[in-house]
Specification:
The chain is α+β, with helices and mostly antiparallel strands and 380 residues long. The protein contains eleven helices and ten strands. The chain has three domains: 113 residues, Butyryl-Coa Dehydrogenase, subunit A, domain 1; 107 residues, Beta Barrel (Butyryl-CoA Dehydrogenase, subunit A, domain 2), CATH 2.40.110.10; 146 residues, Butyryl-CoA Dehydrogenase, subunit A, domain 3 (Up-down Bundle). A hairpin with a 3-residue loop joins strand 2 and strand 3. The model has no long low-confidence stretch (mean pLDDT 97). The structure holds flavin-adenine dinucleotide. The site of flavin-adenine dinucleotide (FAD) has 21 residues, from strand 1, strand 3 and helix 11. One of its GO terms (biological process) is fatty acid beta-oxidation using acyl-CoA dehydrogenase. This is Acyl-[acyl-carrier-protein] dehydrogenase MbtN.
Length: 380
């Protein structure tokens, strides 16, 4: 089916992203996978190419568009290329809104030029060793000391954790538990007491640096408070819809891409004297997956449109997230099976897609948490 959410301008942007991937990312990806981290230079190259801060005001070097479809194009192309190391969407679509919507004018002037040039890599640190799904259980504390907060605690599984120069940290600013006493503090590289732990050894996304972060009496100036004090939870809830949609867009594109590779494979691979594609079981498998991908695509595209119109609510973002990522998991697994033993070899794209994609149903809110959110919206 013809997709109707993109215009010629979006397609021209797609060409730019493809060229960037071919020139600046794919030739280096295997080395980055071995090293566990991408280069700082590729961030600067992304900045030069205009791929950072699409929604940031041009005054700070950004793209000046609030049209999420440009982000969707970027996410789709990265998913198709299997370029899982360079977390541009995390920077643009997940951290970006905190800096553009909550920052004061002074903070924007301080942080956004580096954000758009690629000099400043960003991360968001919510998850802790003892609290992931249950954000209300966060234990990191920021104690008010007049002109600064004293930050203490630990975060884990933080994407861009090694490279990040600015980390938006969710911390508790009142002694009481629950959601009402949390604030967002921007911790900067080099602050005393801010330490990075291990670059964690994951089963996939090997070029993406995912790290532990430790805060030991870090003096965070009050000028680095993002948004109002104790207001973090509302900000997190507002921004998580876009994060979940971004993940859904990538999941739908990854599933379609791996299915496309598998269609080519079963046409070419022979067994029992004819191509696999001539066997009815294989044909049914492909037919089912093509149907599921097409249905998913139409729902995700619709959510992109709704988001553009400011109407995407938490429940529908959650539907898109769990549905598309579970579809990706299922499709990639079945495609791997159709590749036989070759599917288990990491030199085949399907094997890497299997490993890289497995996280999708977990980060950004697990499938189970998505269903909780939807259940609350449907049942009250
Ligand atoms: C590669 C990677 C990158 C990540 N990047 C970031 C990042 O940049 N920033 C960040 O802050 N975090 C990040 N995370 C953390 C991620 O968001 C969490 O791992 C995720 O939210 C789940 O939290 P948890 O690991 O503590 O699991 P838990 O919350 O302990 O959940 C364990 C299991 O219990 C289930 N469960 C929990 N509560 C319920 C419930 N109420 N009902 C039913 N089932 C439930 C979960 O669905 C899951 O299956 C990343 C994680 C990974 C692995």
């Amino acid at each position: 089916m013809q997709r109707d959410i993109y215009t010629a301008d979006h397609e021209a942007f797609r060409d730019t992203v493809r060229t960037f991937l071919e020139k600046e990312v794919l030739p280096h990806h295997e080395r980055w996978e071995r090293e566990g981290v991408v280069s700082r230079e590729v961030w600067r190259a992304a900045g030069r190419q205009g791929l950072l801060g699409l929604a940031v005001d041009p005054e700070y070097g950004g793209g000046g568009t609030d049209d999420f479809r440009y982000s969707a194009v970027l996410i789709e192309e990265f998913a198709r290329a299997g370029a899982s190391g360079l977390a541009l969407s995390l920077h643009n679509d997940i951290v970006g809104p905190y800096l553009t919507r909550l920052a004061t004018e002074e903070q924007r002037r301080r942080w956004l030029p580096g954000f758009t040039s690629g000099e400043t890599v960003t991360a968001i640190a919510m998850t802790e060793p003892g609290a992931g799904s249950d954000l209300q259980g966060i234990r990191t504390t920021a104690t008010d000391r007049g002109d600064h907060y004293l930050l203490n605690g630990a975060k884990t599984f933080i994407s861009n954790g090694i490279l990040a120069d600015l980390v938006v940290v969710v911390a508790r600013t009142t002694p009481e538990g629950g959601s009402s006493g949390q604030s967002l503090l921007v911790v900067e590289r080099g602050m005393d007491g801010f330490q990075r732990g291990r670059n964690l050894d994951k089963i996939g996304q090997k070029a993406q640096d995912t790290a532990e972060l430790f805060f030991d009496d870090v003096r965070v100036p009050k000028e680095n408070l993002l948004g109002g004090e104790h207001q973090a939870f509302a900000a997190l809830m507002a921004n998580l819809a876009q994060e979940r949609l971004a993940i859904a867009v990538g999941a739908a594109a990854a599933a379609e891409h791996v299915l496309g590779l598998t269609v080519a494979y079963v046409k070419e691979r022979e067994a029992f004297g004819r191509p696999l594609a001539r066997l009815q079981h294989i044909r049914f498998e492909i037919a089912e997956m093509a149907t599921e991908c097409a249905v998913t695509r139409s729902f995700v595209d619709r959510c992109v449109t709704e988001h553009g119109a400011g109407r995407l609510d938490a429940a529908h973002a959650s539907m898109a997230k769990w549905w598309a990522t579970e579809l990706q998991k299922r499709v990639v697994d079945r495609c791997l099976q159709l590749h036989g033993g070759y599917g288990y070899m990491t030199e085949y794209r399907v094997a890497r897609a299997f490993l890289d994609g497995r996280i999708q149903t977990i980060y950004g809110g697990t499938t189970e948490i998505m269903k909780e959110i939807i259940g609350r919206s449907v049942l009250g």
